[in-house]
Structures are given as structure tokens and as C-alpha cells.
């Protein structure tokens, strides 16, 4: 079995390398999800995002998510990479690659992994708005 | 009851509000996570804007409110996550 791969780094994400980590002749499907820095959020313009992580716990929590995914889907391999630091527009903040024998399993496991990552992995995002202000994104601010 | 100092790592907005990545909180021996939460609020009023939203982790895992603390553990305190 291909070992799973987890990385939290301030270096740009090479999504070709991320994808290659999970490819295998046993797999008919590879799904790659990329999260990228978006310009407009609810009518406000973003210039850049800053990401901060609690690396040891984030690493451990990502590993737990992979374990959970494996109990639900016959996944061959998973690679999760998250960027920290200052990210200008268009940069990749997160990449998740999943391989499996069939596409349905890879899509479902990939969706589970990114959804749960956003809920429990200790990484935080700060918006740098075009008006010069900045603020930490926060779940309470998302409910409006 | 013995009084102890426990070090707590802060992240994101919690770190900015206190302007430090590590705080020292005075607690009584055998204190729970719930009591730590109250002690942090009392000893670091700067964190008030995050009030009851702060999450507590012990040894790199989310802690339950009734979990007992000891000073050898790695304790962290942070706002809800927003990665991705």
C-alpha cells in the first residue's frame, strides 16, 4: 500500500507532485482538490490571505481524518498538503489527492476530507482586504 | 490545595489579542478544562472578544470540558478553525 502523505509548509504546493504521490496501477481513479485564494468574498475584495497552523496538532488531526475516510471507502492512498504564511491571489492553500479503484469512492472520500479539514484541523485564515484592513476569518462571521 | 502554573499556547486571533504565543495561567491542582477556561478569562481579559468560543486542546487533541489538567501536558487555546 502506498503510504499516505501529510504536509504543512510555507513553500508553494506542487500539485503535480501531490497527485503523483497517490497514483497507482491498482487505481482507476485519482481525484485532486485544490483550494485557492479567491478575490471576491460577499462583495469584498481580498488582496491576500495569511494562514497560521498549530502544526503538530494539524498533522495529527489530518492523520485521523485519513483513518476515518479509510473506514468508509476503499481508498488506495491520500495526500494532504496545506500551505501556511502569506498567500497572494490565486495561490493554492490546500491540495488533497485521493486514489481508489473506482471514481465514486475517490470523489466521496476527497469531499469528506476537505469538508472535515475545514471543520476540525487547527489552521486559521486571515483576510487582507483591498481597503487595507485585515481580519481573522471566524465561524461566527460566516453565519450572516 | 496546591496552586500550579500551566503554560498555554495561543494561536491566530487569540495570540494577537494577548500579543503573545504563550501565556501562563495559575490554576489549582486537579483543575478541569472547564475551570481552566474560567481562569483564562479572569487572568487574560484581553481574550474577552473571543469569550466562550475558545477551543482547548490537550496534547494535540481537542479536550473535553471535564478533562483534568496537569502541568506536564501541552495545552493550547484557539478560536474556531478556518483553514482550507
From TrEMBL, chain A:
The keyword Nucleotide-binding belongs to this UniProt entry's keyword annotation? no
Keyword hit for Transferase: yes
What chemistry does it catalyse, as a reaction equation? 2 [molybdopterin-synthase sulfur-carrier protein]-C-terminal-Gly-aminoethanethioate + cyclic pyranopterin phosphate + H2O = molybdopterin + 2 [molybdopterin-synthase sulfur-carrier protein]-C-terminal Gly-Gly + 2 H(+)
EC class name? transferase
MF terms (GO), sorted A to Z: molybdopterin synthase activity
Pfam families in the cross-refs: MoaE
Q: Which domain of life is it from?
A: Bacteria
Q: What is its EC number?
A: 2.8.1.12
One GO biological process term? Mo-molybdopterin cofactor biosynthetic process
Pathway(s) per entry: Cofactor biosynthesis; molybdopterin biosynthesis
Alphabetized, the UniProt keywords read: Molybdenum cofactor biosynthesis, Transferase
Q: Quaternary structure per UniProt?
A: Heterotetramer of 2 MoaD subunits and 2 MoaE subunits. Also stable as homodimer. The enzyme changes between these two forms during catalysis.
- Family (UniProt): Belongs to the MoaE family.
Q: What is this protein called?
A: Molybdopterin synthase catalytic subunit
Organism, scientific name? Gimesia aquarii
Please state the gene responsible for encoding this protein: moaE
Amino acid at each position: 500500500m502506498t503510504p499516505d502523505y501529510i504536509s504543512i509548509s510555507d513553500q508553494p504546493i506542487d500539485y503535480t507532485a501531490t497527485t503523483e504521490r497517490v497514483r497507482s496501477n491498482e487505481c482507476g481513479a485519482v481525484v485532486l482538490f485544490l483550494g485557492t485564494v479567491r478575490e471576491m468574498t460577499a462583495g469584498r475584495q481580498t488582496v491576500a490571505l495569511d494562514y497560521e497552523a498549530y502544526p503538530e496538532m494539524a498533522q495529527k488531526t489530518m492523520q485521523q481524518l485519513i483513518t476515518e475516510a479509510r473506514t468508509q471507502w476503499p481508498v488506495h492512498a491520500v495526500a494532504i498538503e496545506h500551505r501556511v504564511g502569506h498567500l497572494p491571489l490565486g495561490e493554492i492553500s490546500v491540495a488533497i489527492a485521493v486514489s481508489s479503484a473506482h471514481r465514486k469512492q475517490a470523489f466521496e472520500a476527497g469531499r469528506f476530507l476537505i469538508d472535515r479539514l475545514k471543520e476540525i484541523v487547527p489552521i486559521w485564515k486571515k483576510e487582507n482586504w483591498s481597503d487595507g484592513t485585515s481580519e481573522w476569518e471566524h465561524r461566527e462571521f460566516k453565519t450572516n | 490545595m496546591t496552586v500550579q502554573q500551566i503554560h498555554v499556547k495561543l494561536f491566530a486571533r487569540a495570540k494577537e489579542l494577548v500579543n503573545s504565543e504563550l501565556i501562563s495561567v495559575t490554576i489549582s491542582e486537579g483543575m478541569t478544562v472547564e475551570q481552566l477556561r474560567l481562569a483564562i478569562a479572569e487572568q487574560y481579559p484581553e481574550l474577552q472578544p473571543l469569550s466562550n468560543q475558545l477551543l482547548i486542546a490537550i496534547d494535540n487533541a481537542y479536550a473535553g470540558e471535564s478533562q483534568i489538567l496537569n502541568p506536564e501536558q501541552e495545552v493550547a487555546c484557539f478560536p474556531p478553525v478556518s483553514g482550507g
